[in-house]
Fold this protein.
Amino acid sequence: MSELVKIFDTTLRDGEQSPGATMNIAEKVRIAEQLEKLNVDIIEAGFPISSEGDFEAVRQIAKSIRRSQVAALARTNRKDIEKAWEAVRIAKFPRIHTFIATSDIHLKYKLRKTRPEVLKEVMRGIRYAKSLCENIEFSAEDATRSDVEFLCQVLSKAIEAGATTINIPDTVGYAIPFEFGKLIQTIRQRVQGIEKVTLSVHCHDDLGLGVANSLAAIEQGARQVECTINGIGERAGNASLEEVVMAIRTRSDLLRYHTHIIPKHFFATSRLVSKITGMVVQPNKAVVGANAFAHQSGIHQDGILKEKLTYEIMTPDSVGIPKTSIVLGKLSGRHAFRERLKELGYRLSEADLELAFKRFKQLADKKRDIYDEDIESIVVEEILRMPRRYKLIYINVVAGNLTVPTATVQMEVDGRLLQEAGFGDGPVDATFKTIKKITRTKSKLLQFAINAITSGTEAQGEVTVKLEEKGQTVIGQGADTDVIVASAKAYINALNKIEFKKQKLVGM
Ligand code: KIV
Ligand code: ZN
């Protein structure tokens, strides 16, 4: 009989720590609902003490999620734990996840605490958390660079104080698989009471070994893996959820474990997280990348045509990649549109559906085939966006090799129509400069990327911009069949996000 490995998703907490991957509350709830559909065991919804927005996001997720456990992160101090509990207590299955570093490097330079002080803090923190909630996870931050003797002592005390899950983070992605497996083995041998709790791992990907380390740990008895969709997370990210799960499934001959995950939702989940965070999935990304099932060489194509097994170890179907990417067209009706949205994991109110359908019809007039990516763009652009102070009304750009690129832009700013024209080094530069003139904003452009989200010359271009203003960074996105229009939309979307932040409308 295969054993269960619980999947703890931390896309909304560690994933959000990816530079620039901020999400608003509605977006976080949307992702949490998709994670529940994917059937993850635990959703780490956020770190409530870190901001009012995070607190509110955890609270709303705790309210709306009914099947998965919902975890809130807290350091071991009383204030953090109190706040985490306040945010998550409403969940059907709440969990407090508390952590403190155990490595000498962190004790000396970050915490400025001695080992006995850390031991005391762990006991105190967990006892307090336990007085509020039965389900307590404890993480020993930077476990892989900690003295093993001290680590085992801390973990034994954590269990004595009431922790029900013990998590071993490779915080800086430093471990090598055989070494990490050995550490898990040692913990199982030396930590008192370890057999009564769930042993978990949390592997960062700084050396590209997050998934390999997680699998090595499972082999040595870990029964919970912490991971994120698309592997997003602090610095190089975390172990990728879809890769861990598909490795277990595909190599069930060697790995005699199972998870509760429903893999056919991987593709839609990956797309949703990518759209919302603005973090583009690299084409060669395992399991969900655009090329993950594309066979290019003649020899491979010939093999695949004769027998898929020759070059395919899992099927695109099993991870939810649609057979044909053309899904709807000009003649498709409201019903087909609604059904496709449902399959992609979007449940819209009647009013939102109407708005999205109207936009779909406009797009279908310009473009023969509508793809899933197009539909997602409509939903993310039209429905999930935050209140807008700035709106694009009209844009006309003149560019070429013998003319000075000029943009004429008309916008609605706080309900007033404003128009300006401006020059630039290229059509995009001219557009951005003109928008800046109209909005009188001072943001700095940090990043600009165009991604063709569908194929062909009439494809939707998706533009991602990263803007910075007074230390705040935001991601803006826009999609259109015209990349200059998409660029303008992305820029304006980012400006609206900055405004949103300024107004302290929580959740950014
Ligand atoms: O990487 C890490 O150590 C963490 C902990 C808070 C679990 O994210
Ligand atoms: Zn982490």
Notes: Residues 389 and 415 are 8 Å apart (CA to CA). The mean pLDDT is 91. DSSP finds 16 helices and 18 strands in the chain.
